[in-house]
Design brief:
The complex is a heterotrimer of chains A (about 325), B (about 180) and C (about 450). Chain B is mainly alpha-helical and about 180 residues long. Helices cover about 65% and strands about 0% of the residues of chain B. The longest helix of chain C has about 35 residues. Classes of the chains: A alpha/beta (about 325), B mainly alpha (about 180), C mainly alpha (about 450). The complex binds sodium ion (NA) (2 copies). Chain C: It comes from Pseudooceanicola lipolyticus.
Chain lengths: ~325, ~180, ~450
Amino acid sequence: EQLTIASFLPGPHHLHTRMLGWFGEELEKQSGGELSIQLFPGGQLGAGPVQQYKRALEGVADMTLGVSAYTPTVFPKTMLAILPGSSNTAVESTGRLWDAYEAHLADEYDEVKLIALMTVAGNVISSTRDLSTLDAFAGAKLVPYAAMTQPILESLGAVPVQMPITDVYTGLSTGTIDAAYTSYSNITPPWNFWDVTPYFVENVPVQFAVLFLVMNKERYQSLSDEQRALIDSLSGRVLSMKGAESFDLADTLSKQQMADNPDKMKNSQVVRITDDERARVIARSQDGLQAIFAAYRAKGIADAEAVYQALNP
Amino acid sequence: MARTATSRPPAAETAPGPGFFDRWLVRIALATGGTVLTVMTLLCVVNVLIMRKLLAAPIVGAEDALILLLVTFVALSIPFGARTGAHIEIEVVSEMLPRRIALGQQLVARLAGGAFLALMAWQLAEAGSQAARFGEVTQQLELSYEPFYYLLALCFGLFAAIQIADAWRMMRTGAADMLSLEEE
Amino acid sequence: MMSVETVGVLGLVCLFVMLAMRFSVALSMIIVGFFGTLLATQQKMLALGLPAERAASQGWKTALSNLSGETFEAASNYNLLVIPLFILMGNLAGVSGMSNGLFRAAYAFLGHLRGGLASATIAGCAGFAALSGSSLAAAVTMGRVALPEMRRFRYDDGLATGAVAAGGTLGFLIPPSGGMIIYAILTEQSIGQLFMAGIIPGILLSLLFIGVISLQVWRRPGLGPAGARSDLAEKRRALIGAAPITTVIGLTIAGMYTGFFTPVEASAFGAVLTFAIALAERKLSWRKMHLVALQTMSATSTIFLILIGAFVFIPFMSLTEIPTRMVEFLTALPIGSLGILAVVILVYIFLGTFLEGIAMLVLTLPVVMPIAAALGWDLVWFGIVVVIVLEMGMISPPVGINVFIVKSIAPDVPMLRIFAGIWPFWFAMILMLVLLIVFPQIALFLPQTMF
Ligand code: NA
Ligand code: NA
């Protein structure tokens, strides 16, 4: 049987080739050709990322790939993984997401069969000024990696600006914004932030985005016991780590490209927040974190702080 | 952009003035659509030029508000456009047919279109009632899309009614007069 | 049981039948998209061995979910804010008569030349095109000013109407452009980059149009007698008169090129600035403002309903796998990338003879886009190629929307005469296409250097 997967990402995205490529191959191999996947990338089965969760529930596709922050009221606890904490890479953060999953997050996925849940890391600030100290954040117009971290930026004295990643390049080059949380893969082609960005700030407290791959529950139930067992064995933490590794690999490849193309980096400077400064930034962020937890309590989610602690042991 | 649908030259511009229904449609469209258009334009300019570029203090949730204003404006525009002939039709074939058959064809198109639009309106309302379950909210202020699904449903319902009314008029007068938006 | 491809072909046949029966293009796409999705999903489920009942219920569920979901998705796309706002800007400029200033300025400098009035019409159209996203609006507004003038100077009817109809099409190529916005949304390209890509081809095509006019009056001077020569004072007055509108054009385009504005911001800024100028020049009455609001609603409704149509239709096309088969078929042909491009352009020219531009765009892109992507064509460049071919369709018989508009302004000129005046411009467009294919940089230079 063919399982359809709807993705809003463009066709050749590395999640499709690496993570879903692996998933499809293993499914086909281990089921003796009984199960396979059919990918519809680029919103072919429905435009945009916003309705991806809905499309899985309604069976528009058997599985859909989406971003938690687009439906914030469905995944409030999962979204706590977005906040900066003890993880620095997609692999670390995704591992911790799964450590905390059973105890804290599973109930957010009651209506679907969760296939994968992983993060991508916003681990470098692209900036027109040197943001390697806490004081430098004051007054900086800064685009967060995820909107929910705004209170944290405010507590650092920065001015959070909402802007789609597609406008950030322009924003930096024209001074509409001073800085933006990005991943390394934004620095090199196709994004080319290295053309317009004087500073890349490393060792920042990392912000994340959470992606999910979910399956229509009825469709899952309609499969045979063996097929379900096979999907179970290939999904969950295993597949999620493949996705996280793919994101980290993209970062590594971009770092390599930065090292290999000094002419491209001639107008850019990589600066590093010292561990001491980083500790100061994190200390100052606590007010923002508490504000976020308070907002959660106001929405009726009392244990937000506990979940955050579980995600950042 | 494409301003009128009828590729036929609007020769018969000496048509009688708009009827009772059209007059009210214009009034309502002006009051609602005109207001939304004004607010949308001003909010966009104020947020960008003044708040963001000049004062470095962007309005929180301005994008949310703009999206909701856009949905509202689109919803209000669609039934109005149905009366001004805004929806593009292809007339090559029907112009080659005898008048009576062409008219019959258009009648079928209006009636079937109206029926389908009614289904669409119902489904939009249905989707609205499910919006909370699917987490359909704006991203910054988490404002629910539910009422805006209902508004779209209402406007598509009106669109359906206009199609049926057009069919009725066609049957009685043998022609479908559109509301003209020419100057003078 | 049917294969999904069969369902797809059946759907396309239904689509053509409905179009012929004068269902609106948008509604045809929505209805075929809905029932097509229903049927394709159902057949897919049956093929998996599911019971008929469950297959049918899943078909309904998917189709209904798409119907409402895609409608909302199209109506709530932030980038699409540019549509009502640019329409508003163009309508304000049109209704307040600001566009007359453009024509008068071009007239002051070109009017005394042979064929100069027709050339001034092209220049005026190009200027107005930079304010309006629609070729219709450009043809109507400039036609009303320029046609009476050309007739006063006894211009050949064919040349006069041809210049207005062809000049009007520039509205689609010179940004802002409704066609480009739709192309950008459906192909996930940047609206700003497409706008920038249209500027140089737009100017070049205007010059080609003027060249074609000069060539004609050089061979047959009777076609376009020289007009009155303007003295220096008149020229200065004309320039001052055109200053406000050129300021708006300059600021919005420069703002987008330098990255100071995103397209959405440029559209809002342009609308407010145009409004302020029209108000300051006392060219806006309460009645005119009402008219502008209503016209903006009407045009917004055109574009959005057809976008909703495309959004509902695309998932159906994807499910049927027809686009994939088309790619496989075309890329297997031994004609190379250029040959396939030629085939695509010829198909567009053929469709353009009887289909409306925006309708054609949304109807064809779901199939053509995968081909362009598979062959590695630059999608911004391809967008400009498509826009020019769509423009050719606007002035080609039997259904040329710009020709009809010109006819409505000059009802006594026979249709045949207008079409006869058109063909030189049509060949100028072919020449433009060849230039674009040989020198893609004509389109790509600005987007590649912009921020
Ligand atoms: Na234009
Ligand atoms: Na045509």
